[in-house]
């Protein structure tokens, strides 16, 4: 059971380059998320998608765009990478049970912008 | 914005010791989640709590959803070396609808006593 799969695992970009992080989940979850994790800052939400066809900004959306391609896939795009976007990025998905929401994470993408 | 205060920030454990950590907030949460993150990996869900007062165990781990809905604790009994890592609490303000994102604590880093 793959769960949440994100690619690439590692990437080095030059300032100004663009790239897309891909994420797919096979758990039939409605909601998907992109977080970034920085030392001392914990996990911060960039964008989320409550369902196919909808996306909303999270806490730190500037410099990013997202696409909910279908129910399985949610991509994160950096149009013009900046050194401040050096971080570890986590995709996540969630389902709602009768009592609440439970979120599952991918293994992370390590991005360095030089 | 909402914040979670997680403590302690770090602690050293000796094999066999019990460990306790907690998260508090000024906000009321509907869900509390506890995650563990190993180096180079994504956060892995340990325990999910959905009702005030709920006490849930997962092996040697026990977590409780505080009665006030503003706090939660995680206990690890009889710690073993593989318990080292970073533990995150996360509170969820709502479930269903278009929200459902988590607010994370900054983590408790468990290390082995030298």
Structure, explained:
In chain A, strands 2, 4, 5, 6, 9, 10 and 11 form a seven-stranded mixed beta sheet that branches. Chain A starts with a strand and ends with a strand. Chain A is built from no helices and eleven strands. By secondary structure, chain A is mainly beta. The model of chain A has no long low-confidence stretch (mean pLDDT 92). Chain A is globular and about 45 Å long. Chain B is an all-beta fold and 114 residues long. Chain B has strands at residues 4-7, 10-13, 19-25, 31-37, 44-49, 55-58, 61-65, 71-76, 85-92, 102-104, 108-112. In chain B, the strands form two sheets. In chain B, strands 2, 4, 5, 9, 10 and 11 form a six-stranded mixed beta sheet that branches. A five-stranded antiparallel beta sheet of chain B has the order 1-3-8-7-6, with no helix packed on it. Chain B is globular, with a radius of gyration of 14 Å. Chain B starts with a strand and ends with a strand. Residues 95-99 of chain B have low confidence and may be disordered. The chains are: A mainly beta (114), B mainly beta (114).
Order of helices and strands of chain B: EEEEEEEEEEE
How many strands, what sense, and barrel or not for the largest sheet of chain A? 7 strands, mixed
Mean pLDDT of chain B: 89
Q: How is the biggest beta sheet of chain B arranged?
A: 6 strands, mixed
Task: Give the overall shape of chain A, derived from the CA principal axes.
Answer: globular
Which shape of chain B, going by the Cα principal axes?
Answer: globular
- Terminal CA distance of chain A reads 36 Å
Q: Greatest chain-chain interface?
A: A-B, 29 and 29 residues
How large is the radius of gyration of chain A? 14 Å
Strand content of chain B: over 45%
SS summary, helix count of chain A? 0
Q: Let me know the number of strands of chain B.
A: 11
Ends apart, CA distance between termini of chain B = 38 Å
What is the helical fraction of chain B, as a range of percent? under 10%
Helix and strand content put the structural class of chain B at: mainly beta
Low-confidence stretches of chain A: none
Q: Structural class, judged by helices and strands of chain A?
A: mainly beta
């Amino acid at each position: 059971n793959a769960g949440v799969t994100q690619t690439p695992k590692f990437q080095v970009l030059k300032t100004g380059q663009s790239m897309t992080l891909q994420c797919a989940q096979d758990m039939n979850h409605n909601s998907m998320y992109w977080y970034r994790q920085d030392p001392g800052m914990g996990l911060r939400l960039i964008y989320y998608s409550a369902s196919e066809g909808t996306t909303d900004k999270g806490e730190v959306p500037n410099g990013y765009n997202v696409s909910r391609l279908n129910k399985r896939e949610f991509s994160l795009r950096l149009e013009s990478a900046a050194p401040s976007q050096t971080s570890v990025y986590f995709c996540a998905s969630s389902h709602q049970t009768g009592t609440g929401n439970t979120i599952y994470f991918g293994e992370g993408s390590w991005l360095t912008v030089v | 914005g909402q914040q979670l205060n997680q403590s302690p920030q770090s602690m050293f454990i000796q094999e066999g010791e019990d460990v306790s950590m907690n998260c508090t907030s000024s906000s009321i949460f509907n869900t509390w989640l506890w995650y563990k993150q190993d180096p180079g990996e994504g956060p892995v869900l340990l325990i999910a709590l959905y009702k005030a007062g709920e006490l849930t165990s997962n092996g040697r781990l026990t977590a409780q959803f505080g009665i006030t809905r503003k706090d939660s604790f995680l206990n690890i009994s009889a710690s073993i070396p593989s318990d080292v890592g970073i533990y995150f609490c996360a509170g969820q303000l709502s479930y269903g609808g278009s929200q459902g994102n988590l607010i994370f604590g900054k983590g408790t880093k468990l290390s082995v006593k030298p």
